[in-house]
Each structure stands twice: as C-alpha cells, then as structure tokens.
Amino acid sequence: MSCASCVRRVEMGLAKVPGVAQVAVNLATEKATVTLAEPVPPEQLVQAVQKLGYEVPQSTVVLQVDDMSCASCVGRVERALKAVPGVASASVNLATERATVTGVAPVETLLAAADRAGYPAQVLDDGSGVADAGFDVGGDAGVDAASAGAGQNPATHAAGALGTAGATPGAGGGAGAAGGAKAAGGAGAAGGSARASGQVSGAARKPLSREDRKAAEQRALWRDLWIAAALALPVFLLEMGGHVVPAFHHWVAHTIGTQNSWYLQFVLTTLVLFVPGLRFYKKGIPALLHGAPDMNSLVAMGTLAAWGFSVVATFLPGLLPAGTVNVYYEAAAVIVVLILVGRFLEARAKGRTSEAIQRLARLQAHTAHLRRDGAVVDVPLAQVRLQDVVEVRPGERVPVDGEVIEGTSYVDESMITGEPVPVAKTAGSTVVGGTVNQTGAFTVRATAVGGQTVLAQIIRMVESAQGAKLPIQTLVDRVTMWFVPAVMTAALVTFIVWMVFGPAPALGLALVNAVAVMIIACPCAMGLATPTSIMVGIGRGAELGVLFRKGEALQLLKDAKVVAVDKTGTLTEGKPALTDLLVQPGFDRAQVLAQVAALESRSEHPIARALVAAAEAEGLMLPAVSDFESLTGLGVTARVGGVPDGHVAPAGAVSAEAASSAGVASVGAAPAGVAPAADSSSAAGVAERVGSEAPVAGASVLVAVGADRYMQTLGVDVSPFAAEAQKLGEEGKSPLYVAIGGQLAAIVAVSDPIKSTTTAAIRTLHEQGLKVAMITGDNARTAQAIARQLGIDDVVAEVLPAGKVDAVKRLQQRYGAVAYVGDGINDAPALAQAEVGVAIGTGTDVAIEAADVVLMSGSLQGVPTAIGLSRATIGNIRENLFWAFAYNTALIPIAAGALYPAFGILLSPMLGAAAMALSSVFVLGNALRLRRFAVAAG
C-alpha cells in the first residue's frame, strides 16, 4: 500500500467478504484489523486482498513436536497442521522432531491442532522473538511488505508465530460481549479485534533445549527399562525355564502350582504393561481410535492381545476351546522390555545425531569483558550491544563478531572454517564470535551480536537444512502412510488363515502368529532412514566448513557431472598485484601509472585495487578524476588531470613528474597490507568516444583502461603490444591496455596468485570422476595458461557477467548437471542457473544468498568435500531404506508363518520384538557412520 486510496480499496474489498462486520486498515503499520460477525476462513480474507493486487506476507513458524516415534506419527502431525485454516504448507521431520509451517494461521491454533492429534508442541525460540499475529497487508502488487512483528525474512529466519489474516468468533460462535469477534490467535480485545498482541500464550513458552529433552527422555527410558526388566524376568523364568531345564516345570507345579504361577505372572505382567509400558497405550490407543494407527498402536494391540488371551485362560478357561488353554504372559512382558531397550538405544543414537549442532552451540562464550565508563566489567553475553567494545584475553573465545581496534594475536577459526591454521589478527581485522584466541590480547568493537552473529546464522542454516525433506523422502512418506493399516490387515488375515487352516491348537497358533506380525513390523526404521542420515550428514558438513543452505542440495550435488568455477577469488586469492607496465614511446611510465591509478580508484574491481596499491607504493600523487564511467566486464574510462582529487598518497609522496625525473623506471606488486584509497564508486554505461585528443600538460585528458575488446569499441589499435600481450597471457597474467587521449599508451599486467589448495582440489575432483570447467572474463590466452597449469578440462573465456548463465547452460547441454562455484555479485545468476550453486564463504552476501552450499573456508577443497559428503549421505540413505524395506518385506511373512508348511518353523513374538527393536537401532547406527566422514584429499 502506498497511499490513502490503497487503504480505502483494501477496506472496501475486505468488507465485501461474507461474515466481515468491520474493517480498519492502517497505512503506517500496513495492517488490517478485521471484526467478524461469523466465522471466516483466514485464507478467504487473504484471497480478497490478493485479488485487489496487494500481498499478505506469509510467515514461517517452527514447532517442537514431542512424542513422535515413527513415520506414521509424522504423517498424522502433518495432516493435522495442514487442516488448520490459513496453513499453506507443513513439513514434519522425525529426526529433528520439528514441524515447519508456512501460512497465515495463528500459532495457538497450530499448537492446539498438534495437541489434538496427540503430539504436544511448542514454538521454538530461535532468537527472532515472537511475530505479531496481526493481519499484514503488503505494498504494491507483487511486492511483499516486511513483517511488522518479526522484522525478519521468513525465508531465512523462522519466526516465533504466524501472522493471521483473519479471526474466528468467540465461544459459542456469537459476537461476544462487545458485539465483536474473538481473535483466532487468542488475543481478543474489546470489540472483537482480530489483531493479536504479538505475545504467545503459555502453551508457546520457551521449551527445553533438544539436548535437555533428550537427556530427560533417556533417563525416563532407562528407569522404565529397569523396572520392566525386573518385573518381566520372573515371568520369563516361570514360563520358559522348563525349556532350558525340563525339571523346572515339575518343580514349579509341585511347589506353588501351575495356576498360582499363572496368577503371579498375571500380576507381574500387568505391572509391566501398565507402569513402564503405559507409554505405548497412552499414544497407541488414541491413535487407533482416531483412525491413524502408528507404531505404538501395533505394540499396544500385540501385547494386549497376548495379555488378554492369557487373562481369559487364567480366570475364565471355560470360554476357550479344549486344548487351547495356555498363557502368553511372558510374550507380552518381554515384548515391552525389548521394545524399551530399542527405544533407549534409539534415544541415545538420536541424541548423537544432533551433536554437530550441540558442538556449534557450545562454541559461544557466556560472558564478555566489556569496556564501560573507563572500566572493564564482566557481563553476560546477552548484555553486549552493537558498537560495544570488549576485550579478548589469551585462550578465551571471542564473544561477538567484530573488528579489532587494538592489539594483535592469532585466532583459531577451525571450528567455523575447518581450516586448522590460526589466522593473524591486527587492527582492522574481522573476528568471528566463538573462535578461540591464542596467545595475544586484543580489543574488539562489536559489529554483530545475538542472533545476527556468524555462528548463530550457521546454526540456523544447519538446523533449517537438517529439517528439509529430500525428494527421495516423498516416496517413503507415501508408503509409510499406509504401512501400519496394512500391517494390521496382514495380522488379521494371518489370524483368520491359521484359525481356518492351522493345526491344533489353532486358536493359540493364530494368536501367536498375529501378534508376531504386529510386533515385528517396524515403521520406525522406514521413518528414520532418510532424516537421520540428512541430520548427521549436514552436521558433519558444518564441522568441515561446508554449509548446506538447502537440504535438497545434499541430494542434487551427488549427480553433478561437471564443476564450473569462476577464476578470481575462487581459483585464485582474489588479491591481484601489478606485475608489468610497458609504455609506448612518448609516454612517461610514472605519469601513466598515476593517471591509471587515479581512474581505477573509482572502481571496486580487485584489479583496480591492485593498480591503486602499486601507485601508492611508488608514492605517486593521483590527479583529479571526473566523468567516470564503467562498462562491466570490459573496462573503465574517465577524464583525469588538473587539481589532485583529494587522494592523499603515503608520506614522502612525489608527483608523477618528480618520480619520473628521479628515475622511477618500473612498477612491481604492491607490498602486503597496502590498502586502496577510499571513495570508490561505479557507474553503468560508456559514453560515445569521439576521435582522439592530444594530452596537454595541466589539462584533463580522457583515460581508458580495459581489455582488448574494450579498446576495439573505442577505436584504439592494440597491435603494437600484440607480442607482449601473448607473452603475458601465456604466463597466466591478465593484460590490460591503457589509452590516453584516444591513443594507445601502455599495457599493464596483473597476476592473481593461485590458492595453495586449488591444485589438490581439482585433482580430487578428477579422482571423483568429475570434469572441471573455468568460466572467466579474462582473455583466452591467460585463461588457457591457468587451465594448463591446474589441469582444468574446459575453459570458457572472455565472458561478460551476463554471459555466465549462457555458459552454464552450454555446460549443462554438453555434460549434464552442473555445480557452479563463485564468490562475487556477478556470479549470482550463474549460481542460480546451475543445479547446485556453491558460494565461497569469503565472497559477497549476494553470491551466498543465491547459493545452495556455502564453503566457509574460502578454499576450493570444500567442493570435493561437499560432493563426497553428498554421495556418502545419499548412499547411506539408500542403505537405510533398503534395510528398512527388506526387513519388513522378509520378516512379516516369516512372522505370519510362511516357513511353517515347509520347515515347521514359527517365529516367537519375543524374537519379533527383538528384531523390531534392533532394526531401528541399525538404521540409526548406520547413519551415525557419517560422523566419521573424512575430508576429501587430492
């Protein structure tokens, strides 16, 4: 919305929706407060606004969902959340126990829906605060307004609540005491305003951390396991001891008696089932009654069937056919014990899958030495604000992201970048919170705190990727939705077949085999197969400095056939230095360098910074610059000369003429640490060049610097430097031409050192069976020279930034799936075009936002590591899925008695329970192998 007319238009549009009593739209807050006379679905209000050409931004909320145990639970929670009016999408992850919901539904409605489904949920506090549950109206058509409540980008920041686009009436469906409607978010005000206060009720209070919840769960399972085992052991011995020692049965019959033995087994088994085993019935029976049976339902039905039959045999034996009176208390009791063993081992393994996140979270310092009012005080980290100055002492963790303002030291950044070598830090250096200071001390000015630090963003990014559902999971979800009902049907068929065709005692055999079918089936293994591998794989990647911003990249990266890389900043250090400057007769070398540096001081390109640094190293005074123009990927031009442009050269600087007379004959690379002058800007487009003009002392002159193709557009002949250009290109240097006053004046060459890890990384990529292509704006000779040096397979040179997308498309047509690696703004379109975009973490924010994977170390070695991890993780998922499906496919028929006709073999329900428990543990253990994934090395 941009004006009062927009306000009136939205108000009139919403007022036409049936059930809307009153509408008030606020232009300043971009919110609509809707009072309802009767229930109106939120999506109906949203659609009314969208039809007018305005947008209602959708928010994303992440819920912590408890008590899920299998894939059926996941499907049940997803269906419950998707059924809430205003929900656009809902995705539930079993391994992370999180639900990600996008839409305009009130958060309390989501929590209530999950709770009604039998799974209590809480809003995860991610540091963003709780979003306003009001009705946001965006700007002009197609443009989403920022959420006024959360102030965060929903795509990258999980808000604490969903905005609501409407309201539902209060209790009883009436208008309420004030004649209005109560807000759907539960924040109804006088008059029934649909706008919520932005505070979430007690149900959305801050939950325990996942680590604490898992620890509590393990303690509870361990306690219940010991109770169940202690009670079940006598039952097992009383019933099964005679199979090991035949005289034991006679001893029991002659001491306490068989009937008394059954009474004792009844008491002990009942305690096992309804004390430590109560968890299965509290979840399984309601799920069954709601028509959405899960793993708990199978356990509950199987154990209750065995227990119920035994109770009848114990107390009402006359109701059973002759020859079928027997008890199966030991089966029910031992099944509960074995499943608790499996759940305990599963809980331990699940806790280990999130260790990567836990380790990252533990990197954060708890206190900071804050300089305040001339003194240094220790304060909790939460009290540090932007621009605060904190001291970092030897051996301490850096508390916040910031800039070093005094002191020197080395900092261990391996936990963030994966690089083991400590990095030198001096005044002006940036530091990252959570890294470890070594022996020195320094002072930092905070540039990011709380949820905005690099560490916090990494944790959010990893958690988001871990919660993603890969395309491979879609098929699994469809299968598991029907798995439990199919197993229950199989158990029923098994019971009927054994009753009709089984030998005597048919009833006992039918019961045992039906129970075995229900107990041995394991939807847990299928539900955990994919998300646990993703969780461990992405967590391991974070430890190695490889961040998967999108979980889908983990599956897509393994299919890459070619890795396309940008040259500057990716293969090279991104810090070029001037190596050669050759001038035409009649031009002074020092004067040319000063004019070129003055021109390039207005550019942000790394090569420009190299030329400016070289001039400053020579102590040259830079002349004034005007009419600066740039043609991206080709070159720059401006009028240079006259009064110096305020560009102060280092102490002892001399003019170009003085430098020349003093015998300055050559220009080398700028010394390390020399920074370019400030005041950089750039413009688009190049003005038409007309003719040539002779340089006049003291007057401004037109200076152009660029590639040979740029000189051609200016009508400048570069053939006098043809031999020199070829020689420089073959040496891997980037030649540029200088035209002054429309005349060719000089050729300059810069060289960008290749990163020390580049050669090994490319060698590893070749070992992985991948092709490597380089896409660069450099001239073909230079690109080919670097390609030969590094062993690159394909070169696409002299490409303008806009042409990188076409270059990627050609590589896709030639090779197949492409992974593109870049670090700059001009790489963003190519990163988006490729199947997987990989950004160097030291690059620009735009490149990182466009990428699917981020390499924190800035080294190309992260690419083969990411690809290797992708292949290992997807391979691990396939192993898990094969085991889970093969296990159920093979053992369910065996449990039903498929081997009995040929071999006389029946599977005991106790063995079925053990196999079921171990199947989930196997899947989790297999996923945990990814924690040992090693860095790819060439």
Automatic annotation (TrEMBL):
Keywords: ATP-binding, Cell membrane, Copper, Copper transport, Ion transport, Magnesium, Membrane, Metal-binding, Nucleotide-binding, Repeat, Translocase, Transmembrane, Transmembrane helix, Transport. Coiled coil: none annotated. Pfam families: E1-E2_ATPase, HMA, Hydrolase. It is a multi-pass membrane protein. GO terms for cellular component: plasma membrane. SUPFAM superfamilies: Calcium ATPase, transduction domain A, Calcium ATPase, transmembrane domain M, HAD-like, HMA, heavy metal-associated domain. PROSITE patterns: ATPASE_E1_E2 (PS00154), HMA_1 (PS01047), HMA_2 (PS50846). GO terms for molecular function: ATP binding; ATP hydrolysis activity; copper ion binding; P-type divalent copper transporter activity. GO terms for biological process: copper ion export; copper ion homeostasis. It is found in: Cell membrane. Its main location: membrane. The chain crosses the membrane at residues 220-242, 262-278, 298-320, 326-345, 479-501, 507-530, 881-900, 906-928. Belongs to the cation transport ATPase (P-type) (TC 3.A.3) family. Type IB subfamily. This is Copper-translocating P-type ATPase.
